[in-house]
Design goal:
Blueprint: H1 47-52, H2 57-60, E1 64-66, E2 69-71, H3 86-102, E3 118-122, H4 128-136, E4 141-146, E5 159-163, E6 176-182, H5 191-201, E7 202-213, E8 218-219, H6 229-243, H7 254-260, E9 264-275, H8 282-297, H9 299-311, H10 315-329, E10 336-346
Parallel strand pairs: 3-4, 3-6, 4-5, 6-7
Antiparallel strand pairs: 1-2, 7-10, 8-10, 9-10
Helix pairs in contact: 3-8, 6-9, 9-10
Length: 353
């Protein structure tokens, strides 16, 4: 298994509250490439599946359509604010590429061995990670769950998907060797409960791994400030999400939650995710380019529903805001980045659920 380069990692900050208002990146160093830019800043750059989901298909495929975008139709619409249409799915697949690129091609960092038998991918999204794992580990039975049935039907024979609300009580009859949870920032109300469910349904000696973000942007000495449109946008996203009980900033809190749930041998890494091609390092420059593209392509998808539901904004107001955000994102002198947190831990062999 490939491992991340040492210079790309550092201990995670203790809590997001300690970062509020801070515009210098905590602990994760990225060297800036020399830029020649005009001062005006205008330059751009299993069985569980069959036992539970059959009766739900007609309900979950009854999608909701709002402001030209498609959203899930399963239960409480306030639990997940992002679209599930092709445009958003393309963004999620691009993010999968960025995340694996950050980990030097690795799909996970937990030491799960060469022949894991049963793997759960919580909040699988488009299913791309589960499919890649199915190809890598033919010994494993891999199950992915999600609130939207957007996964492909042509998948490896050892990969299956189910529709489920992962915040409800899990009903699996067989425990897992490895549980993988990725990219659920802004989507979960009760993270400690999620940790407890992972602990209950992983085998003694098995592993869990969480990979996620917070919503803060930082700068390495660039033009980004707390008064910028981007800073105001993320402040408002956090405010809106918390109105509905969703946690927008799980990344730096995950290590503490994993330990509190009872996992042992816990390890944590923090990776820089630049926005744009400003880093000098070749890999970080590539990550930054893809990260910029995925933001520019779907700002409306990330903004419209939460701004409408929480603050009453109409689509035209959102479009004007997103145009302003794109101008700031395209400015390489902002030197933007955010952080990516990876935490893994092992269930003790003598653990009691």
């Amino acid at each position: 298994m490939a491992s991340p380069k040492e210079k790309s990692t550092s201990p995670a900050p203790a809590s997001p509250s300690s970062q509020h208002g801070a515009l210098n990146v905590p602990s994760v160093d990225v060297e800036v490439e020399s830029l020649e830019v005009e001062d005006d800043g205008d330059s751009a750059y299993g069985n569980d599946l069959e036992s539970y989901t059959t009766s739900l298909k007609s309900t979950v495929l009854n999608y909701r359509f709002e402001n030209g975008r498609r959203y899930h139709g399963y239960k409480d619409e306030a639990t997940y604010f992002w679209p599930n249409d092709d445009e958003e799915n393309d963004r999620l697949d691009l993010y999968h590429h960025v995340q694996t690129l950050s980990l030097d091609g690795a799909l996970h960092l937990a030491p799960i061995g060469d022949e894991p038998q049963r793997i759960l991918d919580v909040g699988t999204g488009t299913g791309i990670w589960a499919i890649d794992m199915g190809d890598k580990y033919p010994s494993a039975e891999i199950l992915g769950n999600d609130i939207s049935p957007i996964q492909p039907t042509l998948v490896p024979p050892n990969v299956k998907f189910e529709v489920d609300d992962l915040e409800e009580e899990w009903v699996y009859s067989t425990k897992f060797d490895y549980i993988h949870v990725r990219y659920l920032a802004c989507s979960i109300r009760d993270w400690p409960k999620l940790m407890r469910q992972c602990f209950k349904f992983v085998k003694p000696g098995g592993w869990v791994e969480f990979q996620d973000f917070d919503t803060w942007f930082y700068t390495r000495g660039g033009l980004y400030t707390k008064d910028s449109k981007l800073s105001q946008w993320t402040d408002k996203l956090r405010e809106g999400l918390r109105k509905f009980g969703n946690e927008p900033d799980p990344g730096p809190q995950i290590e503490g939650w994993v330990r509190e749930a009872g996992f042992a041998n816990v390890e944590a890494r923090t990776f820089p995710f630049p926005v744009g091609t400003w880093p000098k390092d070749k890999k970080l420059k590539e990550i930054g380019a893809f990260n910029l593209v995925q933001l520019l392509d779907n700002l409306e998808g990330l903004t419209t529903r939460i701004y409408h539901n929480a603050f009453g904004w109409n689509p035209d107001e959102v479009k004007v805001l997103c145009a302003d955000l794109r101008q700031e994102l395209k400015n390489p002198r902002m030197l933007l980045q955010h952080n990516y947190y990876v935490v893994w831990g092992q269930k003790p062999l003598n653990a009691v659920d």
